[in-house]
Design goal:
The complex is a heterodimer.
Chain A lengths: L1 H34 L20 E7 L7 H9 L2 E7 L2 H10 L6 E2 L3 H9 L19 H8 L9 E13 H8 L10 H4 L1 H7 L4 E3 L3 H11 L9 H14 L5 E2 L4 H6 L5 E5 H13 L6 E4 L6 E7 L8 H11 L2 H11 L14 H4 L8 H6 L8 H16 L2
Parallel strand pairs in A: 1-2, 1-3, 5-6, 5-7
Antiparallel strand pairs in A: 4-7, 4-8, 4-9
Helix pairs in contact in A: 9-10, 10-17
Chain B lengths: L1 H6 L2 H28 L12 E4 L2 E4 L4 H8 L1 H34 L5 H9 L6 H12 L4 H8 L13 H24 L4 H9 L4 H12 L1 H16 L3 H6 L7 H11 L3 H31 L1
Antiparallel strand pairs in B: 1-2
Helix pairs in contact in B: 2-14, 4-8, 4-11, 8-11, 9-10, 11-14, 13-14
Classes of the chains: A alpha/beta, B mainly alpha.
Chain lengths: 395, 295
Amino acid sequence: MKLSNSKYLLSMAVIGAGLTLAGCGESDKTAADASKPAASTEVAAAAPAAGEEEKVLNIYNWSDYLAEDTIPNFEKETGIKVRYDIFDSNEILHAKMIAKNTGYDIVVPSSNWGKMQIDGGLIQKLDKSKLPNWKNLDPTVLAQLAQLDPGNEHLVDWLWSYTTVGINVDKVKTALGDMPMPENTWDLVFDPKYTSKLKSCGISMLDAPSEVFPIALRYVHKPEFSLVEADYKAAFDMLMKVRPDIKRFNSGGQIEDLASGNICVALGWAGDFNLARKRSIENKSEQHIEALVTKMGGYMFMDTMAIPADAKHPNNAHKFINYILEGKVHAGLTNAVTYANPNKAATPFVSDEIKNNKTIYLSDADVKNLIPPGNVDNATRRIETRLYTQFKTGT
Amino acid sequence: MNMLKNLFQGNKLVIGIPYGWFLLLVAIPLLIVMKISLSEMEATSVSNMISWTNGLPTLKLNFANYQFIFSDALYVKTYISSIKYALITTLICLAIGYPFAYFMARAPKHVQPTLLMLIMLPFWTSFLLRIYAWKTLLVSNGVINNVLMSLHVINAPLEMMNNSFSLTIGMVYSYLPFMILPLYANLSKLDLRYLEAAADLGTSPFKAFWLITVPLSKAGIIAGSMLVFIPAVGEFVIPELLGGPDTLMIGRVLWDEFFSNNDWPMAAAVAVVMIALILVPMAILNKAEAKLEEA
């Protein structure tokens, strides 16, 4: 008797936990549903003709990375029904790709992850004869991307941005006092002379070793994608000197932290800083946020469309890529999320405010200064992660 | 015929279900994880352990991952830190949960189901939402700081978020019901005549509590502590959302191995060692229970 009662309670506890889990699952699902375009329910019921693909396309893309009308217009134009799922980190996508059979026809890895997936044979070659809009692509961006994907055979840039320093202008001015802004903007986060002052209003750094190390390596005058452990140690030693001044490590929360004034300096994504700026202007908050373009150059990243090797609807995928490459459509993406697009034909459709923002539409010289997306081997990645963990814990 | 009849005897079938469950959902996955932990990672796949040369199978076991775990101080530190946080959580849960359960067990019989319901109620809300709610309470421009500042109790906001304080609060909050429920089950069956007898013989209430109630509730204490400690060691979500950059927890290291390093075998090895770490307290629990049953 004694036991059975406690067992009953235990099972209730377990059921409770089960409910919780079910709750989590449900909230995830509704979140995903909400992000799906409403029009996806209007199924075009065209029966596939012989030899033709069924009119379905499964897309896996980043969250908050789309204009409201992008998908509905595509569905209207082609009669292809789109199922649109979202992720929030390359790591998650990569794990799915390795496990294979993702069920997706288009995935959007960052180009350096895309390269690993190409090398592993997980991504198929593009058929450019099906992409008449390819001609719209900016040769500068194509050349940058070709360093990872020679001949641009697999990856098509969706949008791009770069890792840089973002600041809350007034707070930084107050914290620095009589000190002028450094000539090399990176000093704001890498030089103890500055960080020790900025500490008072809060410094945040990306929680992403693979994006911080290329910059840190360049800062200590080492090759950005070095395979030499000693180079990483040198960058690590430099980072450790500013560690006591860093308040936070996160990737997703910087927009909110900056917009709410919780931090005043961040090493993060230029696109996010501009979103934070947009938000604080919309909310009429007093925080004046700016992305900075550094002379030394930030780390360029491109999120690229790719077709998994085992995609079931490669033809529809090509149609979708070609649709995105239309100037108007690509411009729509940029207008919605303040990230730059690689599309020359899109520029006339981009809103003036974004076009004239020199931190979104960089000058050609500034683009050349950026560290192009690169990649290191698994062993080096392990060193990066290991040192970054040590850096974060500060021991 | 006879054997077949034996096989389908009801009692064996009934016993077979939990055994089958165990085999299918615990033993086999665990073996797969162990297998992966002894392989090597290639660029985008896990290597095959068995290769065929001239029709002969060659078995290649890679123990390097386990060696690495014990040679790199990070892992040892992380295991110790995880156990430390799990222990702190367990002790605080016990300190809060015991009086809580005691009060529930002594409450009038007709109130008890309501109290029990109140303990279970938070489970009806998503676990993630409840952890996020703590975030809004603890951040520097959050509810607690704003109230304290407007009352002029403090001048600058307290740093309560993304450190071991917020982590401990989140863990204790989430696991407290798992401590209270088994303790309540145990304490509510305590025979009050023992305490009456003790009082008759002149024992002070506190001494009676210490000498009678606590020893008799030992089974509840052990069960509750295990229910809190074991999941707390491997906790990932709470440290991810409420922990700071310097809080090392094995769940996060595992995530790093699996996703950031893209090293599945290493992640599997870290998991196997963690399971071993959890099995030790389980074994202790089992022994303690067996002893209690004998007594």
